[in-house]
Amino acid sequence: MEEHIENPMPRIGDKAPDFKATTTYGDLVFSEYNKGSWVILFSHPADFTPVCTTEMSGFATRHNEFKDMNCKLIGLSIDSIHAHVAWVNNVKKNTGVLFDFPIIADLDMHVAMKYGMIMPGEATTAAVRAVFIIDPNGIIRLIMYYPLNVGRNMDEIVRALKALQTADKHKVALPLNWQPGEKVIVPPPTSVEAMEEREKSDFEMVDFYLAKKNI
Ligand code: BEZ
Questions:
Q1: Among 3.30.1020.10, 3.30.360.10, 2.70.98.40, 1.10.357.140, what is the CATH number of 171-214?
Q2: Which parts of the chain are coiled coil (predicted)?
Q3: pTM higher than the cut 0.85
Q4: Is the CB of 22 under 6 A from ligand 1?
Q5: Is residue 80 pLDDT above 70, yes or no?
Q6: Catalytic: which of 16, 39, 41, 52?
């Protein structure tokens, strides 16, 4: 008989599941950590592995950019706190990069299970490479999942956070490959009057429903 693993997949728009965890910066309650700031919660399969080392170093070297965007980082893997501390120490000694954000020691997988980070077709004892961008209200706003053998793109993670914050601030949407500083999409009009107004506007327009402006 196939073993049943309780492994819900959180969805965009859901409240981020709360949890208590032991991390490399002490014990924490996620909802407290999330209070008043964006959080990027991300998992990696295992400490002392090559792809994970490059990714964690990527987060660490761009940590100030995330801080400038009012965003905290928190990593996770199904390893002990001792393995995490040893790995942090090892990478610091070898490369000078300090993983200066909490990394959850999720040995019993209680956080990984809540966030659908275990994908049994890929691995039953290691988390895949998940990224959850969670807003200051504790709502999951964006999710990425990568397999064990493909590292994530840090530029895209930064861009995605910037895009979400821009969309919220200016009530706009962002087109394909949007980069900060480029034009944004104005929401389509929802009345004939608004449509007529739009036709008189100085927006860059393909048609009334696809209009861009500078912000
Ligand atoms: C890595 O980080 O290199 C890795 C970890 C688990 C499986 C495959 C690769």
A1: 3.30.1020.10
A2: none
A3: yes
A4: no
A5: yes
A6: 52
